[in-house]
Automatic annotation (TrEMBL):
Highest rank taxon of the organism: Eukaryota
Xref: InterPro entries: PPR_rpt, TPR-like_helical_dom_sf, TPR_mt
Family named by the database record: Belongs to the CCM1 family.
Record text on subunit structure and interactions: Binds to mitochondrial small subunit 15S rRNA.
Keywords attached to this entry: Repeat
Protein's UniProt name: Pentatricopeptide repeat-containing protein-mitochondrial domain-containing protein
Residue windows of the PPR repeats: 28-62, 97-131
Domain Pentatricopeptide repeat-containing protein-mitochondrial: 205-335
Amino acid sequence: MGGRADMGQFGSCFSLAAEMKQKGIAPTLLTYNTLLRAFAPGGFAPASLAILEDMLSMGVSPDARSFNYIIEAHRTEKSSTLTFILARMEELGIAPNATTFTLLITRFVAEGNLEVSLQHLHAMKARNLLPEVVAAQGVIVLAANQGYPRLALDLVASFENESVRKVENSVWLACLYSSAANLYAEGVSKCWYTLVADFAVSPDEGLCTLVLHTAARNGLPNLATDALRVLKVLDVPWMEYHLAPLFEAFCRAEQYQEAFTTLAIMRQNAIHPAPTTAFPIIQLVKQRPEMLDELWEVLNQMNKEGKQIDPSATCALLVASVTTQPLSRTLADYNMLKSWGLGPNTETFNIFVDACISAGNVGYGELAFKQLKEAGMTLDHDVYGRMMTLHLSQEVYDDAFLYLEVMHGAGHIPARHLYESLVLRCATAGDDRYLLVLDEMKEFGHIPPPEFVRHCSELHGSGRAAQEAALARARAEALKDSLGHPGMDGVAQKFIETGGLSGVQIPDEK
């Protein structure tokens, strides 16, 4: 019967049991356990309970193994059924063993029920039973997958301290992934060095990238450097999104020269820093504006030592200056670059002129434009477009038309948004030239929508009315100033100036 039970031939097992009954052979505990073993893998829950009742009716006391088979047969049944089985075990005075708890834990792990799995794990420890490795690993991986890396690592430490067995590499990988996904620095460091240093496991690129993000957020440049080393081992070419976290890690660790050097290393490896690569340094200055002087001094020292300064570093500090300092200070920082041999370029010009546009400072903007021309830099469409926008921020905006003509002369076709800004500015001011700009837009293929034209017409009417009202007020003020008190002749004016009726007695009327 045992051999047939191992093969899951429960029908043959029942036939043998019936034959034993016909021959008057009383079944033993082994007989019933063999029958239960035959039914357990197939999940025949009702049959297993029927066998239990038959055992009890025959005066055969079940043991923990009997109930283990019954629990295995109920592994896909509702939790309430398992509660009934455990209550029956307690009623019969049968203590669960390690296998019992393993079956319960693996059943609830498969269901994704972390809370109940932990309850059974703690109940197991309360009975001084060591969890089997499959049960412990199941709970650990479930905790990691559900976003509890700290709990998962605590369970790993507890299991390995109490058992001679060690968890598998796959468990450490699950904990590493969970820790990195949740930016849990302590967990990432523990899992990373256990896998990479102790077990010589090389995580894949995706996991390395997650580790890099954690290193960046927590200021761990050594961890970031090791993750980059593993990427090299995997023959994964470095990209901007690999090295940008190293820059952030150095910034958060307050190793600013190393951070700026990272940008130069990127450039040396044919990796162009993105506009967002140096963003962490801008965030740092926003939080601590007093750091700006220190960071400029770091670049100054690098320049004195002949070290390469990447343009993205100066652009980042210039943005930080624009964000936190007066425009006059930003102008000083902008001009300082020239003394380092890093004269004005279109990137730094755009940053500075955008600040001038926000402040409405035409003088500084024109100065920067002049310096850019003198440096021999190519004046592209965006340069002229920014100068147009700068002048459109003023009350008198005629120079915006001048830059529009210069753009034409340089062979640039003004972008649609520049034309629209110019049209709106003219219409708002009641300037009839908005119609000419609309016509020019059409000539260059920028067909304005009818609703835009209608809106501009309405703005022009309102602007013209406001303009006429302002002109009328100005004329009235001028007339008032020239006549003193409008509406009075000279005699009346002199009468008031000499005191009027003051001191004169007026006789009563009779």
